[in-house]
Amino acid sequence: MPPGALPLLLLLPLALLRFATATADANGTRGNTSCAPATCGNLSITYPFSLSGVQPLYCGNPAFELTCAADAGRAYLARTFRDRLYRVLSIYYESNSFVMAVDVDSSFVGDERCHIPDFNVSSGLSLLPVNVSAAANTNLTFVYNCTLPRNASVLLQPPCARLTIGAYVLDGEGSALPPEVPRNCSSVSVPVQRSSFRNASEEPAHEYRRLIDEGFVVEWPSTTAECGACKGRGGECKFVELAFQCICSDGRPCRNSRDTRGVIKIGTGIAAAALLFVIILTVLSLQIKLRKRRYRGNESNIEEILKGYDSLIPKKYRYSDLKKITGSFKDNLGEGGYGTVFKGNLKDGRKVAVKLLKQSKGNGEEFLNEVVSFRKTSHVNIVNLLGFCLHGPKRALIYEYMGNGSLEKYIYSEETKMAIGWEKLREIAIGIARGLEYLHRGCNTRIIHFDIKPHNILLDEDFCPKIADFGLAKLCHLKDSALSMAEARGTIGFIAPEVFSRGFGVVSTKSDVYSYGMLLLEMVGGRTNTKGNIENSSEAYFPNWVYDRLVKDLQSHEVTCETEEIARQMTLVGLWCIQTAPSNRPSMSRVIEMLEKNINELEMPPKPLLSCPSEPLYFSST
């Protein structure tokens, strides 16, 4: 950095503070478009809520934007990972609370008679600026995928078509299930109002649908006092520059109100960010001179990064703890490209899989990426991360143990594949699709996995699929439709064309759709029988070759009349997913619909237009 440059850079925060204040003033003078209350059904909608298509977005906090199903008079939160997921039943502005219910008209895990959520509702709300009221609500927990006590008081009535599910009321976060419930059960929870229970002896298993439909109480941070004072001065409450502002009749912030504090906070924040930027530049210039010492400080830097993620980080274990958990790493479950997996047991008796990572290059970004990506997820089809280890050069991940191992061993053996049945294969395919749909749409940032393949799909004791291994995952904000990447990543045979060559399109969630399509084709066995003939050919990794082989060989697969329809359906969906142009591939939501439709409703996809290159391709090993 040239002499004298640092003092000049230190003036930057002051300039940015003045710019931020001027920008806030300019934003306030864009006009005074009315934020008059709107209605949907019997709801009166005003700040901090806004009604999409009726009121400008700044009339409320964007997190509380509502859509209105006018035909039914129902209001729904707009910014959720599924359309019409949370229905707003009533709003109590004086107490900063509202009642909403989860829309469970869709079936649970494909079971048309199970109208319960397929995710933990409280976790799904963690990214919204709300609190689920502990005083007004209790938790209704559903357990499944295990052998339950034959007690009619806890089993769902009427029963589900394919699953045996029990319902329990657990008061408070982290409350334990009754001791008679096996430890290997899967579970999902939904808050319900305490007042919805008509009497103390009422069985939730018999009234679960009504309890869910009557919703639960949610509270938002208090804005009532300042908004009321704003309206008393003739102003309007708006959400501008990421904060509450009181806008006067001339379209400018009311200068004599407390609302100007929001502008000052924004300017101060920008100035602080600029100052931090200057500090970072200074540190980087020093690091260039001290490059030889960087390795010794690497682990402490990682610890600082972990502190920055704070709530997203699960329990941390010492390396000595891992040795106790795994019995000195004696039970090896398998080895992959990023490490070795060992079986172990926690102190409470739970079986776990401990993934001991190979020594990573650089500053451990892949390790942190997997930890944070895992922690951001809460879904029945995503493997549950229980903890991690960062001890010197040793790094490990601890997640729930999957009794049936990976999908890989079932689809590469004809005898094993037929043993689990084609109907079960389709259920597994739908479960994987639901997990990917959640990753792509289920939280504030999309998670693109980049390594969907049979080896990374784990099966629990009931063959429920769980997506695992987030070592290559990338995060991008929901507003970003494309992702910028410096190098190809993934596994040859499952990697999308645009990932290794930008000439085919931009990298996005559709890259995972391509990998999922190749996974479907592997599950059907479209290439397994001829794998030995093309093992050393680059042709095997391009969709035009897959299309030709499937059209030619589909009828030759060893499937019975009863299962041929399932095999054909999975094949057709797979071919749609591996279309060369990302824009021609369906979203994962559309994939789920296609897998649940009758095969006669599916069209034959066009033949992919991609041609095999004449020269070999070289992929990154990351």
UniProtKB/TrEMBL annotation:
The chain crosses the membrane at residues 262-286. It is found in: Membrane. ATP binds at K355. One of its GO terms (molecular function) is protein serine/threonine kinase activity. Its main location: membrane. The keyword ATP-binding applies. Keywords: ATP-binding, Glycoprotein, Kinase, Membrane, Nucleotide-binding, Serine/threonine-protein kinase, Signal, Transferase, Transmembrane, Transmembrane helix. Residues 1-22 form the signal peptide. PANTHER family: RUST RESISTANCE KINASE LR10-RELATED (PTHR27009). This is Protein kinase domain-containing protein. The lineage of its organism: Eukaryota, Viridiplantae, Streptophyta, Embryophyta, Tracheophyta.
